[in-house]
Write the structure tokens for this entry.
Amino acid sequence: MKLVLLSDIHGNLKKCRLAVKMANRNNASIIVAGDLMNWELKHPDTNFKKQLNILSKCRKKAYIIPGSHEEGKLYKWIGSHKLSKYDNLVDLNRKIIDLKTHYLIGYGGSSVIEDSIISKSYYRSIPEDDELMLNQLLSIKGKPVIFVSHDPPYSYLDTAIFRKLKLKNKKLLGIEPAEKVKKGAIEKSVGQKVLKKLAEKHKPLLYLFGHIHESAGYEELITHKAVKVSKHLLINAGVENVYLADVNKNWVKILGITRV
């Protein structure tokens, strides 16, 4: 089974078109691990609908979870029965989808919501509160599991870069995200410990996530080895990459990574 994997689109229509082109060329489905929206655009709602229109051109299904930027009312366009042209867009949030050979499980939203969108109807997730539900979903037997969340699991491709805020009276006021700042930066793992615990307990065949742009990449569960073929592979798709993967019953192989 071929899959096109991406996350953190943030309004990039070119990235959507590339994902659909790759999917249709390889007879693949698409999985998006959240953050389609970009609130910095002049018309974020119009851009979001354009993304959905492009993704709907995928001949197979496009499975989507919300990230930390998705607005509730707009997100409901995904899988809407009122819009026939979006019938092949599937809301995967907190659901199990039977793909015949695999189970696909989604857990959208984020525990960290930026101040700029906090007044909006965003998707917030608290893994500590959802641990029982997630444990039940991931306990499903009979087929290999593909798990998708927006937030990363702790210690896996989750290192964020922060910069120090201005000092006052020689005291550090705090830190703020600084994705591209290197000099004097603070690096910190910011993933979710509950997601790490569940991933290491249930060992999904493939675990896709995003959110932390600067830690995009792939590695093996437990060993943290950067391998392209594994029976337990984790991928932080990041903001610039679109992955093509071959998912078998016993292993996952990264066939290609295209930078946008």
